[in-house]
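Feature request, filed as a ticket because there's no other form

It would be nice if the structure record came with a short human-readable summary line next to the tokens. Right now we just get the raw output. Example of a typical job, pasted below so the devs can see what we mean:
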Amino acid sequence: MQKAKTFCVFALVCLSSSDLIAGPPSAQWTPVSRANLCVTEGTIDELPGQRLSVSVPKMRAYVNAYTQPVAEVRFTYLGSTGNEAPLASGEMRRQFGLKLRAQDACNLVYAMWRIEPQSKLVVSVKSNPGEHTSAQCGNRGYQNIKPRRSVPVATLSSGDTHVLRAEMNGAEMQVFADNSLVWDGSVGPDALAFDGPVGIRSDNARLQIDLRTGQRIKDQTPGCRGEESE
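Raw output as currently delivered:
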């Protein structure tokens, strides 16, 4: 009887740990070329093999297609852009991440891998009902979401290559780093009040990127908006 109890407790601990450590992709992936991106700030260059290159302090872009709210990016971090620019809040930060349900500059969901000054994975919702441009909302409406479960992400050094993946199922969201689950939780009802394509964002980070999205779910496209920051 004592052995059975010990095994039962051990099995439950193992299940809890492995549930947080690994997670297989749940989407059929489609590579994204530069031609399929709408760049709303900064520039993105294309390298051979549809690989993307970013070397500007601020980059904002989204996929010109409506897909499942999932995205995956394999990226090589190459250090600072050299001419760093502060965020709208005045804070200096180096980061790179994915955008989901990106209706516009004022309403979207972020999964950001912060690099400097502190390495961490942050999920946030930017919600500004009735506002659609940076001139209207600025940097208002951000809410960092507390996860149910999370583990630290790696501290990045120049030359490191990693894979970042974010998936939403309703308000439930999971973020994976190198196929390990690092963030799991609900982003709440505000994130379901708007909808839009997936995308990418960087601040002060030089990168090479392979971006993939889930399956297309609408025939129409969002179209490319004018230049705007988020």
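Something like this underneath would help us a lot:
Residues 1-24 have pLDDT under 50 and may be disordered.
The chain is about 10% helix and 45% strand.
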